[in-house]
């Protein structure tokens, strides 16, 4: 029996949509796959990149810097993954994001209607960042455009 099928447009799209469906995960479940911070480990979390700023280049540069220190560097451009639980044991949080939605971002395979937001920055995340920095002593680096969150008064006051 041959495992090869004729590559038709229908088969191509069926395979593509099946792959998308198989790799689509619930944002809240994603953290289950991330191992907890080990004793003595330094955890750096980076949230960066939008249509105006090269998050990929920034991420690679920062990864290179922190790898020399042997620090665990975890990065995303999707604010939905930076939750209060995720940063609760971070030693350093770095943000290079402006306060609006990322143009052209589409978390679903097909987008219809208005551009979806990645909910940067929610009130819950704002409170968690301020609490972790002020009360727990987590390090914080606000690079470049991070100050452009005019509606987040506690965050800006910090």
Could you name the key traits of this structure?
single chain, 6 helices, 158 residues, four-stranded parallel sheet, alpha/beta
Secondary-structure topology with pairs:
Blueprint: H1 9-23, H2 27-30, E1 43-48, H3 55-68, E2 72-76, H4 84-87, E3 92-96, H5 123-136, E4 139-142, H6 153-157
Order of helices and strands: HHEHEHEHEH
Q: What percent of the residues sit in helical stretches (DSSP H or I)? A: 25-40%
- Which structural category fits the helices and strands? alpha/beta
Chain-averaged pLDDT? 78
Outline the structure in words.
- With 158 residues, the chain is an alpha/beta fold.
- It has helices at 9-23, 27-30, 55-68, 84-87, 123-136, 153-157; strands spanning 43-48, 72-76, 92-96, 139-142.
- The protein is built from six helices and four strands; from the N terminus they run ααβαβαβαβα.
- Strands 2-1-3-4 form a four-stranded parallel beta sheet, with helices on one face.
Short structural summary:
The protein has 158 residues and is an alpha/beta fold.
């Amino acid at each position: 029996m041959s495992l090869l099928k004729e590559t038709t447009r229908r088969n191509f799209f069926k395979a593509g949509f099946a792959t998308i469906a198989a790799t689509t995960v619930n944002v809240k479940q994603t953290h289950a796959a991330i191992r907890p911070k080990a004793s003595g480990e330094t955890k750096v979390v980076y949230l960066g990149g939008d249509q105006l700023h090269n998050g990929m280049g920034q991420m690679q540069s920062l990864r290179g810097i922190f790898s020399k220190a042997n620090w665990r560097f975890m990065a995303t451009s999707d604010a939905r993954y930076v939750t209060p639980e995720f940063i609760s044991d971070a030693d350093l949080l770095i943000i290079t994001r402006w306060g609006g939605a990322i143009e052209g971002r589409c978390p679903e395979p097909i987008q219809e209607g208005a551009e979806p937001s990645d909910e940067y920055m929610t009130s819950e995340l704002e409170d968690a960042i301020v609490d972790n920095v002020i009360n727990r002593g987590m390090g914080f680096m606000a690079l470049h455009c991070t100050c452009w969150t005019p509606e987040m008064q506690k965050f800006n006051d910090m």
